[in-house]
Each structure stands twice: as C-alpha cells, then as structure tokens.
Design goal:
mainly beta; two-stranded antiparallel ribbon; about 170 residues; single chain
C-alpha cells in the first residue's frame, strides 16, 4: 500500500508526485467544518504524465442520529464516528443525554460506531451498517466492555539511549 498526502493551498489546489500506476485518490476534511469528503476517484497515471483530479466537497444533507447506550443507560461523552462506502467521514461526541447527530450524505451505506473510556475501562460498539436513502435515520448504538485499561506507567529515560517501557499485563514499547 502506498500513501501520499498534500494540503490544499488557499485556492484549493494540490499536487502529489507519484510513480506511474493506478491510484485511489481521496480527500479528507475536518468534520468540524460541516462538510464531507468528496467521493473517491480512481486515477491512472502513465510515465511522465500529469493528471488532474478535481474534487467537490459535499454537504451532509441528512442525519444519522440516536443515543449511545451502555446497557439501557444513555451515555454522554462517547466518541461517535461514521464512514461511507464513497469516502465520507463524520465524527462527533455524544451529548450528556447520550444523543448524537452525524451529518451524512444520502443514497449511501454508512457504518457508524462509538467508543468511550469509563472508570479505566474501555467500551466500544461494533460498527453498524446504516443504509441512508432520502430520509434521516435513527440508529441507537450499544457499547460493550472491551477491557480494563492498565494503570499509566511513567518512566524517565535518557533520550540518547534505547529504553524499554513495560505496562503491567499490557504492551512493551
């Protein structure tokens, strides 16, 4: 897999230098701006060729909304995300009453999920497929316990020497 990236300038232009080949080109935009990424494009570039791929960012004209639940209890402060088959991405945090709203595009399949740490325990949902047509969709999301998180480990080390940090019952870095 090959990944390259470029930021757009003030005119919306970008340039990515690649070797000859076929590529899937995607855009990414901060969800806080209220827009969605453009639909992904496949671009094939021959040796010494320059190709132009223009993208149009999309507005989320519909919503997927609902509640984040831990058992039967609505849960605020959960990270909620959604992504579509056509390259869209949105994220938000659930409100104090557990409610969330993701602005999405219609006529696409979206996958939504949520996660939250509660009292040093990590909870996550499975991603739920939501088929968005021409109307807003209500989809509640249930969190399940994944694992208790180990306590933090603090270690001071000399930056010029290799250091190994181990978390009890967890990873070694």
């Amino acid at each position: 897999a090959f990944v390259a990236e470029a930021d757009t300038d003030s005119a919306g232009s970008y340039r990515i230098n690649v070797a000859a080949g076929a590529y899937f080109v995607k855009t990414f935009i901060n969800p806080e701006l209220g827009l969605l990424s453009a639909a992904e494009q496949q671009v094939t570039v021959a040796d010494t060729e320059t190709k132009t791929a223009n993208f149009t960012l999309r507005k989320g004209e519909l919503t997927i909304n609902g509640k984040i639940l831990l058992g039967d209890t609505p849960t605020g402060g959960a990270f909620v995300w959604g992504w579509s088959d056509k390259g869209g991405y949105q994220e938000t945090m659930s409100a104090g009453d557990g409610s969330y709203v993701l602005n999405v595009t219609g006529s696409e399949n979206w996958r939504v999920g949520a996660a939250k740490e509660i009292n040093d325990t990590f909870y996550r949902s499975s991603e739920v497929e939501v088929k968005v047509g021409i109307e807003n969709i209500t989809q509640n999301i249930s969190l399940s316990k994944i694992a208790a998180l180990p306590p933090p480990t603090v270690q001071t080390a000399n930056a010029t020497a290799p250091t190994v940090v181990s978390i009890g019952g967890g990873p070694t870095i």
